[in-house]
Amino acid sequence: MTNGERVDQNKVVIVAAGSAWPLYLACSAYVCPVGRTFQEAGRLGFYSGRTIHGVAASIEHVEPSVLMSQAEAAKRALSLDPTQRRIGDAVVAALAKGYDDVPSNQVLLLSGPDDGATITFVPVRHEGRNAWTMNRRYQTVASLTSATTTADLP
Question: pLDDT tens digits for the chain (154 residues)?
Fold first, then answer.
């Protein structure tokens, strides 16, 4: 992360990811409301379809407030800064997936699914009656890599 916060690369924040998982696969980013915090987690994982998907992506950069507009995406696309261009790509992908319901969002740039900085593990199934998370939960890399189902998680 480049916002100066202390981070723990062994701590993973798992987010409810009905629309976030496809966005991550499209552009290696996570878009969420402005002001959402992730404690000291250095990684982000995704839960949808009763499964914790088998990636713990490294959080590479947090942009605290980004306008969700084509004009903002175009402005960032023209930047000489590769981070700003990636944010522009994330805005384009988010708009295409219907994220335009608020004027601005926070954008987290993540390591990609095939990036060496991303930790992969066997997807963890949830067999309970209710959703495992509706918002976000925290786990360690070790707990995710050793779990078979969410019942195995602390």
Answer: 444 567 899 999 999 999 999 999 999 999 999 989 888 999 999 999 999 999 999 999 999 999 999 999 999 999 999 999 999 999 999 999 888 767 889 999 999 999 999 999 999 999 988 999 988 999 999 999 999 999 999 9
Helix (H) / strand (E) element for 138: namely strand 136-140
63 closest CA partner among 46, 43, 87 = 87
108 alpha carbon, distance to own chain's centre: 6
Whether the predicted model's global pTM rises above the 0.90 cut: yes
Q: Which CATH number applies to 8-145?
A: 2.30.130.30
132: nearest Cα among 53, 24, 52: 52
In the chain, where are the structural domains located? 8-145
Three-class secondary structure of residue 14 per DSSP: strand
Task: Quote the DSSP letter at residue 129.
Answer: S
Six token digits for residue 109? 């740039």
Is the separation of the CB atoms in 26 and 90 below 8 Å? no
